[in-house]
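Model the whole thing, not chain by chain.
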Amino acid sequence: MSIISINNLTKDYKTTRALKGVSLEIEQGKLFGLLGVNGAGKTTLIKILCGLTKKTSGTITVNGLNLDSDINSIKQIIDVSPQETAVATNLTVLENLEFFANIYNSCDKEYLNNIINTFGLSGVLNQTAKTLSGGYKRRLSIAIALISKPKILFLDEPTLGLDVFARRELWKIIENLKGKITIILTSHYLEEIENLCDEVAILSKGEVLKTGTVEDIKAQTNTQTFEDAFIKVVKDYE
Amino acid sequence: MNKTINFAKRNFKELLRDPLMYVFCLGFPIAMLFLFFFINKYSGGNTPTFEVKSLTPGIIVFSYSFIMLTLALIVSKDRQTFFLKRLYSSPMKDYDFILGYAIVGFIIGILQTIICLLTAFIIALISKVEFIALPNVLLLFVTNLPILILNICLGILFGTAFNDKSAPGICSIFISLSGILGGCWMPLETMGGFETFCKFLPFYPSVYLGRITSGATNALKVLYKFDGYAVVAITTIFVYMIASVILTIFTFKKNMVSDK
């Protein structure tokens, strides 16, 4: 069952067309990856789905709700962890979590403790966000996004700028979320998409070039590795 | 309203943990009051503008301009760090954001007024001069409300319109204007045409109304009283206040869309 349906979506900026007739179906409970090089339109697509940017044309339904007319209801069931960590820097980790929980009227203490344990934040609870390492900031950012108990979670480049250890730690956390909620993850790290995602859409210059599982895409392109498959798909388009 | 209060609490905590807030919003006004007290004391005590009843309303009005700076910094920083962008995708409405910042500015403004008055009271005790009567002290909070609202709005406006690098620069221009054109420590009443010019800006009318309330005398040793100009002063400051509220709401809403 599709939780997100995107049909012929376009987005025009002043001089460029960022999305050119994108159509996608994302199934409930899946970890769906949006893969593309810089400027492919991944972040624009996520911004539109979160109600942060207005689309130019096309239709989108999220959990059966129309994005144009039901955006306030949609905002109650989605959350986003942006590319930038976007946390309150002078607040402690616990204060950040409580602040966002209050915004969504989600004051379930047990759930909060569960989130703290899942993300391994108990050791830094009373530390201000600005003193955290990059890895912990990312963990906090994703933990914040989950505090509202969203049905759909958008993770925009969640491991960007992290060292290999912090990245692997975060992968484990994301993997544990699989099946519990629908996750839409953008990345330009092929290894990340290959390891985490149930299904992938390859985007380039605002168009969806291929969708399917990593194995499907490798088979369709007659390649051995996902990196080769990705390069072939993008090169063939160009 | 819960979301507004929750956001205001966050803003208040952020500011309380920023040392610059204490330096600008508390340290500076206290230092200014003592500075002018000592200048007056060691120059023969012949400068009415530096007397407690005259100086205090001026310094209070001047100190509000630091609230503008503080708010401009937090708003522009929230925009720059994408913290606001993240909140835009939450169920928060635009009025939650504006009020969340404004409430904090208002609380700091009231605290600043209390601290300025307490400092002035200590100075009055030290120099053994009469302090402002208690009902007038309370009235001073009301008199200063429009200029406080104006500064709060300008802070949100500059934070919304400019980034965290340029907003402080724009604010410092307004801080200087507030001090000079407000007549906080300059006897504008002796400057003829320049005083007339200042009368139609928001700063001097606020100081003027404050001095009527505190029972101050001007540089010409004439008691400030509720005269014809006081009505013009009230009108002037209200026009600026209303204009700043409208402009801030409009700019915030507009930039909220473009920031997205």
